[in-house]
Amino acid sequence: QVQLVESGGGLVQAGGSLRLSCAASGGTVSIYAMGWFRQAPGKEREFVADISWSSGTTYYADSVKGRFAISRDNAKNTVYLQMNSLKFEDTAVYYCAERGRGSPKYDYWGQGTQVTVSS
Predict the structure, then answer these.
(1) What's the burial of 5, exposed, middle or buried (CB within 10 Å: 0-12/13-18/19+)?
(2) 117 forms bridges with which residues in the sheet?
(3) 46: closest CA among 86, 9, 91, 85?
(4) What is the DSSP letter of 1?
(5) DSSP assigned state of 92
(6) What is the DSSP secondary-structure string of 18-84?
(7) Measured between alpha carbons, how far is 66 from 43 in angstroms, rounded to an integer?
(8) Rounded distance, CA 91 to CA 25, Å?
(9) Burial class (CB in 10 A: 0-12, 13-18, 19+), 79
(10) What confidence tens digit (pLDDT) does each residue in 58-103 have?
(11) Residue 28 pLDDT > 70, yes or no?
(12) How many angstroms separate the Cα of 58 from the Cα of each of 55, 98, 118?
């Protein structure tokens, strides 16, 4: 079973940057993709970005394109989310998730890390 631990959240002013990290352990040989999701107060969880573990192909939500960048370090079993030009509306709990090979959905989730952007 995969365990995911996020880090790097915090408080930042609008226009600033943060880098989130998510380290995976246990069962990592079967990773197909890893992604970042977020949930703001009173809203449903939404997709932010994901990355193919083998090819590195990335996908982004329209709301973060050009500002956020997802990357991975296969040797460290770690995925990153570089967030630049942060906006107040980026405030949310950010979760990383893992999708295993052959799975149609994200099966494992981290505990989340809070990102707060002050306007």
Answers:
(1) middle
(2) 12
(3) 91
(4) -
(5) E
(6) EEEEEEEESSGGGEEEEEEEEE-TTS--EEEEEEETTT--EEE-TTTTTTEEEEEEGGGTEEEEEE-
(7) 23
(8) 27
(9) buried
(10) 999 999 999 999 999 999 999 999 999 999 999 999 999 999 888 8
(11) no
(12) 9, 14, 28
Query: Is residue 101 packed enough to be buried (19+ CB in 10 Å), middle (13-18) or exposed (0-12)?
Result: exposed
Q: Quickly state the pLDDT bin for 26 (edges 50, 70, 90).
A: confident
pLDDT of residue 2: 86
Residue that has been written with the tokens 């630049």 in this structure: 84
- From the list 113, 116, 87, the residue with the least C-alpha distance to 21 is 113
Q: Which two tokens stand for residue 25?
A: 């352990």
Residue type, 89: E
**Nearest alpha carbon to residue 64 among 94, 43, 34:** 94
